[in-house]
Amino acid sequence: MQDIDEASRIAEIEAHDLLSFSEAPGFDDITSFAAALCATPIALISLVETKRQRFLSSFGLSVCETPRETSFCAHAMRHREVMIVSDATVDPRFSANPLVTGEPFIRFYAGAPLVTDDGVPLGSLCVIDSHPRTGLSPLQAQGLRLLADQVMVALRARKMAKMHVEVDQETQQTLRQSEEKFRILADTMPQMVWSTLPDGYHDYYNARWYEFTGVPEGSTDGEGWNGMFHPEDQDRAWSTWSHSLATGEPYEIEYRLRNANGDYRWTLGRALPIRDHAGRIIRWFGTCTDIHEQRLLLEQREIVSQELSHRIKNIFAVIGGLMSLSSKAHPEIAAHASELRARIMALGKAHDFVRPHSARSKPATGHTSLQGMLGALLSAYQLQSDTRIFITGTDAEIDDRSATPLALIFHELATNAAKYGALSAAEGRIEIDIGTGQEADNIRIVWKERGGPEIQSPPNSPGFGSRLIELSITNQLRGDLVYAWDRDGLQVIAVVPKSSMCRTG
Question: Could you say which of 322, 338, 362 is where a domain stops?
């Protein structure tokens, strides 16, 4: 006979849905078969609780429960095998039991314990007779144990079903609470918030969306949202959204969205996919942000910036014109004025390349491209029938801060090459290679002259142009400069930090 942790046993019983068990099909078949197998008038499936034993099924007995203190099954469940009481009237445990001295006048009892997989006893499957008996045959005892096992299979299944229902209810409650919190949070956000199913079907908008658009709730579900955009933006918005749905890439676009007054306001739309553990998209969450004022402000700033840049470029032209007039009035400074005017015009070209542009004024080559600026700056040295300057390698991004010193550097190099180097000879060539330095955060620019006059020796002292190049590299661009006076042509290597080339580089 085993000891019982009563608290654990009662907790295990409460984990089962007993009310449903009383109506579960199959239990009556088990008790009727047990009675027939053992040739007894009564068979019971009993769960022993704190103060009573409850019959999940009874055959030959009309009551559904009895007090625990009169329970034979409370004793039987402590046994590992079938407990046999041959004659209860002579058994000191039961001789004074009201169920022995009165109805149903129990004499013979045989009970197979109902025990969980963890060894917790719940009750027993028993057969009862009003006449004393010596016991059960081996076949009857084996059959009673097998029927008890069947009862436990049903109990385990019902317990698991109850657990699943409880977990599902908890999950649903958690989801409802989570969704409620999300809706409260979404409705307090200044942005319009929306979500879609994996196929892009819009099924949620927050209160801000309906407040901004003024449309009835639910009217923009599905594909109805596209009709809220400006007609000129609808195809572009739909194409961008379709691309994100097909690829899973983040969605971002600026479009004009109709508000409650019927006006179109510039809006920034963004969305990200939510994926499960397998990487499948299960939902999209997105926002719409009103950027109308910011957009108008940027357009106004662009107009002002373009006007200022245009005036600066005009200043370059005016200065060049004044120098031309001065050189005519004072021929003795003509040579120096010509060189200075050429430098100023180079600065003008560099400024034109990095200044703010409209769609019409924007250069054909990227207006923040080093290769593009070099091509424009050195175009005067190219011949229609013969390319003399070759620009190779990767490209680098430049801005207004680096364009001026770079323009001065390459203007001086090209001017010197035209006077003394490769460009002074018909077969002369210049190769400009752009790449990264030994460190990835540097840009390495190599200027190599070929086919010009043979260099006998490096110059004794640097001229103004050379000093200007070195100052531009070291002081303004925080880079390094190396000259190599090879016999077949000058080679200049400049290493400049990317951060000096472009603020965002």
Answer: 362
Q: Is 302 helix (H, G, I), strand (E, B) or coil?
A: helix
Q: Which residues form the domain of 431?
A: 366-505
**CATH code of 441's domain:** 3.30.565.10
Listed as own residue / partner, the contacts of 265-274 with beta carbons closer than 8 Å and 24 or more positions apart are 265/290, 265/292, 266/290, 266/291, 266/292, 266/295, 266/296, 267/291, 267/292, 269/237, 271/194, 271/196, 271/244, 273/244, 273/248
In a domain, 72, yes or no: yes
Whether 170 maps to a domain, the answer reads no
Do residues 355 and 320 share a domain?
yes
With left for phi above 0 and alpha for psi between -120 and 50, is residue 416 left, alpha or beta? alpha
Q: How high does pLDDT run on average in the chain?
A: 82
Q: Which strand ranges, in their side-by-side order, compose the sheet holding 429-436? A: 389-393, 429-436, 442-450, 489-497, 480-486
Q: In this structure, are residues 398 and 368 in contact, taking their beta carbons and an 8 Å threshold?
A: yes
Q: Report the pLDDT averaged over residues 33-44.
A: 95
In a shared domain, residues 321 and 286: no
Verify that 373 and 323 share a domain, yes or no. no
Q: Convert the pLDDT of each residue in 346-380 to its tens digit.
A: 555 555 554 554 545 555 544 578 888 788 777 76
> Average pLDDT in the 138-166 region?
87
pLDDT, residue 133, reads: 94
Geometric angle at alpha carbon 434, from 345 and 370, rounded to 5°:
35
3-class DSSP state of 128: strand
pLDDT value of position 110: 96
pLDDT band at 169 (very low <50, low <70, confident <90, very high): confident
Q: In degrees, to the nearest 5, what angle opens at C-alpha 152 toward C-alphas 150 and 156?
A: 120
Which pLDDT tens digit goes with each residue over 180-194? 776 777 677 778 888
The whole-angstrom separation of Cα 469 and Cα 484 is: 15
